[in-house]
Amino acid sequence: MPKARVLVALVGALSAIFGTTSGFLATPLNASDPDLVDILCPDETKGITRDHKWITREAIRRNLRQFFIDYPPPGKPEFVVPESASLTELYAAYYGSSASPARFIRAVNTIAESNVHADSSTSLRYNPSIQADAEIFDDYTYSMSDRYPQILTAILVDEAFPAARSLLGVTLHSLQKFYAHSTWVEQGNTDIVPDLGLPGFPGFDDPAQPDEDVCTPCPSAQGGCRDNVVAGAGLTTGYYSYKDELAVDYLVPKPATGGKCSHGGVLDDTAGEAPVGGINKDTASPCFSPHYYLHDQAAELAVKATDHYLSIILDAVDVDQYRKLFDLYHGSALSIVMDTTGSMGNEIDAVKNQVHQIVESASASEYVLVPYNDPSIGPVTKTDDPAAFLAAVDALYPDGGGDFPEMFWGGLQLALTNTPEYGAIFCFTDATGKDGELMNGNIAMAQEKNTKVTIVFSGSTYGENGLITTIDDYHTLCDLTGGLFIPSSKFDIGEITPLLDDTVSSTEVDINIMKEISSSKSISIPIDDSIFDFKVQVVGQPSTCVLRDHSGKEYNIMDEAAMRAEPNIEVISYTSNIRALRWNNPTLGAWNLDLNPQTGTLSVDIQGNSTLSWLGGFALLDPSPPHPHYMAVEGRPLTNTVYYIDVNLVGYIESKVKDVDYVEYVNIKGDVLRTIDYSGEIDDEFYIRSEPLPEEPFYVLLHGHVSSGNAFCRLMSVLITPVQASVEVASTTKELSARPGDKATGKFIVTNYGLESDFTITASDDKRYITSVTPSVHILQNSSAVVTVQFSVPASATPGTVSTVTVTAASVKQTQSVNSAVTQFVVLPLEEDHDKPTCVVNDAPVCDGFGYVGICHTKNWTASATLQDTGSGMQKVYPKPDGYSSLVDDFTRGSTDPIRASLDASCCVLQADIIGVDVVGNVGRCMIDMGVLGGLVYDFQVIDIGITWAYLRWSITPTPFEIHKYTLVDNDDYTWEFPCKTEVCYRNVTDLEPCLLQNFQLSPVFTVDGGDFRGGHAYASATTLSREPASPVGGRIVDVTETTVTVAWTPVDANCISLFQVCLKPVGFSDAVRCNMTEETSFEFVNVEACAKYEVEITPIDLEGTLGKKSLTIDINTKEGVPGKPVDLQVEIETYESALLTWWDPVDHALCVDTYIVTTEIISGASSQEVSRETYYRSAANAGITPQQHFFQEKPLRGCTNYTFKVYPRGFSGTMGPYAREDRETLETDPVPVEFVNLAEVTTTTIDAAWGSVDICLDHYKVCHYNDYDETEVCVDLTDTQTTLSDLLECLVYHVSVSSVTPSGVVSEKKRADAKTVDVAPSAPQNLTIGQVTPHSIAIRYDDPSENPQCAAHIGLDIAKANGEHQQPVSSTSLVKGHVKEHTFDKLDACTKYVIKIMASSPDGLASGWDSVEATTDMEVSGPAQNFRVDGKTTTSINLKWFEPEVNGRCVRKYSLSWEGGSKTIEPATPEETLPHEVEQLVDGLTSCTEYTFELTPSTATDLDGPVVTITDKTNC
Questions:
Q1: What is the model's pLDDT at position 1179?
Q2: In sequence order, what are the residues at sequence separation of 6 or more whose Cβ sits closer than 8 angstroms to the Cβ of residue 562?
Q3: CA–CA separation, 1454 and 1445 (whole Å)
Q4: Per-residue pLDDT tens digits for 17-60
Q5: Arithmetic mean of pLDDT over the chain
Q6: What share of the chain is helix, strand, coil (3-state, %, to 5)?
Q7: Can you tell me the distance from the alpha carbon of 352 to that of 363, in angstroms, rounded to the nearest whole number?
């Protein structure tokens, strides 16, 4: 089972931390943890134990205190700082209280963590030459001395300070281990081994021989043990053995001689081997450390040795580089990555302009510029010279590119390598990156260095495939590092570059970050006492964005003009895509940001300038041997794993942090994933046991309170991305190094905790030394694989060059299984050089008789020396202390020639060094020591101090001159003069101010040649004690308005007061008590209530954060203000004639309300008319600021009426405030019918209608009309009382009705009226056709007229016989238009042709034209011919006449005439002809005088014969 997974399982079983102790192990531990109780035995532990982190920090603290005193701030040569000052107090004393020590503390922590890494790394933790075990002194000292030149060349050659800190930490680990693991302390040594760990170390004077017995048995194998080291035996270290398969190749078995020492303790298997017991002094616990009682001595020597080693480093490098080693700068780095391809002209110009402004207005600690093109990258400009940086920026110009994706990731890699930790990098580009193989490594490096990467993107290109990355990848980079992705047009780039100015600040801390906000969000922003100002950056396009302070004051960030007009707001950048604003001197308390995106998503970044910051990380508890400790997570942490959160609260003392309450895991959108409560103690560093990590990425927020009670929140800006794989560096620093021209192989362990998968391996380094890497490995679940990386160092490489190496493993199956390891590769010197430069004094100075204060300045001395280094050659030569006249021969770096140096000084300087440093950092020196200056005050210190007094002690070196007196000055203010004739003097100084840092300057005054001569100054400082703070005095009102109260006071013992609690208490009304903390002696309360009486109570808070018992009270009456608008006016309609009004007091100036004026208005269209105004008297019982509800009934009202109800607040002076308004309608009554309907102005198609109005409960009128023609009723809803009925038909009577309708739809009775439209003539009926025809009838059919059919009130018919052109009327009729469209003419003659005509006429007689049709009646047997007679005769003829038959005469087609002896047919000549009405027929050929009888028979065409008629007559004779 892989070791890392074992640790995960162990951690999962641990209990929460109940209290914290420390151990001279790697890290502080909680001894009460279940997995540690049997190892550390907390109940048996004696005193405080120290761990490597504490020892390292303490040594750095001591070293830097002296460094600050030796190199004081400009203009402060007398700079002193108390011996007990913490790291952050040291920094604040030197750089000012407003400077954030976060980066400095991070640099210190990096060294300490590298020290701890030696107990975590597989290649270091088991190695006796690292851990000072098993008597292998040669390997032990060599490993440190071999590392020494790497540390120095990393600083001197490449200024690769991260690498130097890493190497330094490992060396300090080994150095410190010596005093805990060897018998150096047991041998009675009280000082350190000064050259231990340095090249040329000659070795220990008396190391134990292999066969020498050095230990005797302890009474028991476990527990404390005394006097088990053989007196007089050689120096030894203990043997340490334990069961761990990974340690097998490293551990050295304990010899079976029976006389060698064991390491000892419960984890050491050799503790039971003869001689039993052990010697380690790692802790104060007898369970773990048999020599626990020597732990304090060992720890103190480890601190001194570390301090000394750092002093050697300081001697080897210059002061400026030593500052950089610890990141001792006020400002931050300005780091820019610039795409210089052809399309980037606008961006380059904007950056140039902004950089000039920054350099002119601020001082960055360092400047980094990385241009990149395609395919070129660099060169990098890294400098602290503003002029050199500006020259590099001004030299940028756009050129080249071509294929659009550029070498972005290579440019970023170069910037990350050269930018200090906890910095920020701004990248300007308009294209994606084509070198995507570097992406994961760059992200890992940025997260490792806590470097924010912000991209200002002014393009629109997306990647394609392969190694071309996308804009989404840019988003990921910014999200994971805590930076911003800022889309920009090329036209507003100049508005964005001012963001660069903010990167120079070193005090910015992250309060909150949220991204991908797609809906409305409310973000809490706690502003605590340590925040000087804060900045809000919103990227995207919000529809609303409002910030509110704790008093409710609103800032509409969307209103640019309003923001620029605010005196306390600085608008940093304001474009369509980013709004960055800073609030200076914000009020303390809970602020809130409400925002909502208009399109897309929003990103929000909230930062503050503060003395309180948080450096965090994750660690696993490793209780296994050799040294249990919290093992820092390297790379990304694992999912669903319980870790410990490593909390470093930087500046927590100065910021007066009271507690830490909880930690939150919050996803990128601000959703809380985990909350981890904490109630333990706080310190420089402590650990909080975590919940299992979520699977999705998250930010970590730390919440707590400062002493004022205000909440604070700090965010770790790196987006934590838990994964299921780890990458560990398996090679030692020696293996990750090579000389110019040589090759090297590095090994890395990849462990897979996810699904079985292939892993793709990529590796990169900024110096391009990597030649190959294992391309892929297949790893089972919970298994590991080793990958190798090959390096080749060019022969031209400079020794000391450091290349940052990143190795990334990515699972093919699981995208979340991507992790990286970041380490350094060092170029070694061509040859080893462990020899110091030689230094020989040529002319020794002499100050005999002049080495005394008073006369030393009258004689000067000169010393010269010759220095030479025949190994790597000389790097530099300089005197120490500096500031004196010196002369050094010119030489080139690496010179092996003798170098002459001289130093001139007065005899007031009796001790000096001339120092030579060779190329690899070996330090040689000539020490000039002419003794101690006589009459020199030393060991000046405050040995005791009270509230108003300080007890001083000092010594003075022997001098032949009489000490006339001493002059003592306190804080450059008060001076005392007094005598003291002894070598050790004491002085009690009284009448001091309490709680004040007292800086004492002591000067001896000697009698020289009969006169006074003042000697040199000595300095000491201490802070007088505190007493209970007294009540302030002199309380006064500075200003009072209706919304503000400003008071001032005079403190008593102001130095003993850290803060004042100023409380505003309401008097005579209910309101919350408002308390604020301030360091000032005045305070303004805003948003107070007008017309109110308050009591302001001012209470001092002492330096420990305790509230004083006595307070100052000031009575306040605020001025009258205009009352605000009543709140939540509601109107309830009770009946159709009454309403109940309710409202609450105004939010603003509620106490200024004397009465309320209630008005009622009837709404009429767009206007309204006031119908009521009444006064409502506010009850005295409602006099509180807590909103009260009021009730008022308004009556009588009219039903169904729209009313406007208004409530005005009226102040005591009669001033009316803004009203609250509510519109309501009263309930309905029964509908009221209209009184009349008038119809007028009738035309052919319209009728004007008007009716009586209804003014109660009327919603509308329902107007209907219909006619008898089609009987369809048409209705419309109208609100007016008149209308024109249009689109009517002519000639018709319309029946019109009007009803009123209530709002609920109830309809009243109808009121009716009739009117007829004007006539027009219709067209003739159409489609006139013949229907059934009989002998005596003809039926016709017809349709309505095609035009105006409704106007055909009468139909005219006419029928006439058709007799050629002449029409003989038969009949005429008029038919009323109806539904029957047919008519039958009867009583007609058969066989007769008729003409039938038709027309139509309106009611008023307007007629159409005629239409006609012809028809013939059917045939029928006719009657007898009529009037058959003789009309003349002759002797041979008779002329006959007759008329056609009366009945059906027109049917006769022929007549048959017969007589005796003859017949004849009479018919028309042609078929078309007809017989005449009167027929005449001559019958001739008769016999004269003969009587004839004639028979006449009519016949139809169908030979139907009618009745026969006869006539008899006689021819003439």
A1: 66
A2: 555, 556
A3: 12
A4: 222 323 344 556 665 555 565 666 777 777 888 899 999 999 99
A5: 87
A6: 15, 40, 45
A7: 17
Q: Residue 598 in 3-state DSSP? A: strand
Rounded to whole angstroms, the Cα distance separating 173 from 25 reads 10
pTM of the model: 0.69
Contacts of 553 (CB under 8 A, 6+ apart): 1086, 1087
E strands present in 549-683: 554-556, 569-574, 578-584, 589-610, 613-622, 629-632, 644-650, 657-666, 672-677
The alpha carbons of the chain give a radius of gyration, in whole angstroms, of 58
Express each pLDDT in 231-241 by its tens digit. 999 999 999 99
Helix (H, G, I), strand (E, B) or coil at 26: coil
Q: Catalogue the E-assigned strands of 1068-1188.
A: 1074-1078, 1082-1086, 1093-1102, 1112-1117, 1127-1135, 1138-1144, 1153-1164, 1167-1177
The pLDDT, as a whole number, for residue 629 is 83
Tell me which DSSP letter residue 1196 carries: -
Dist CA 1099 CA 1106 (whole Å): 10
The number of beta carbons lying within 10 Å of the beta carbon of residue 219 is: 11
End-to-end Cα separation, the chain, in angstroms? 171
Question: What whole-number percentage of the chain has pLDDT above 90?
Answer: 49
What letter does residue 253 receive in the DSSP assignment? P
Task: Name residues whose C-beta falls within 8 Å of residue 1365's C-beta, 6 or more positions apart in sequence.
Answer: none
Rounded mean pLDDT of 1169-1178? 85
Spatial distance between the Cα atoms of 991 and 961, rounded to a whole number of angstroms:
32
| Among the ranges given (189-193, 865-869, 1265-1269), the one the predictor scored with the smallest mean pLDDT | 1265-1269
Average pLDDT (1446-1457) is 90
CB 1196 within 8 A of CB 1137: yes
Spatial separation of the C-alpha atoms in residues 518 and 521, rounded to whole Å = 9
The per-residue pLDDT for 5 is 32
> Any bridge partners for residue 83, and if so which?
none
Its sign, for the CA torsion 1183, 1185, 1189, 1192, is positive
Q: Identify which has the larger pLDDT, 251 or 629.
A: 251
User: Residue 1273 burial (CB < 10 Å; 0-12/13-18/19+)?
Assistant: exposed
Pairing of the two strands 997-1008 and 424-429: unpaired
Percent of the chain predicted with pLDDT > 70: 93
Give the model's confidence band at 331: pLDDT under 50 very low, under 70 low, under 90 confident, else very high.
Answer: low
| Helix or strand holding residue 123 (H, E) | helix 122-125
Distance of CA 1245 to the CA centre of its chain: 71
Cα 1128 to Cα 1146: distance, rounded to the nearest angstrom: 9
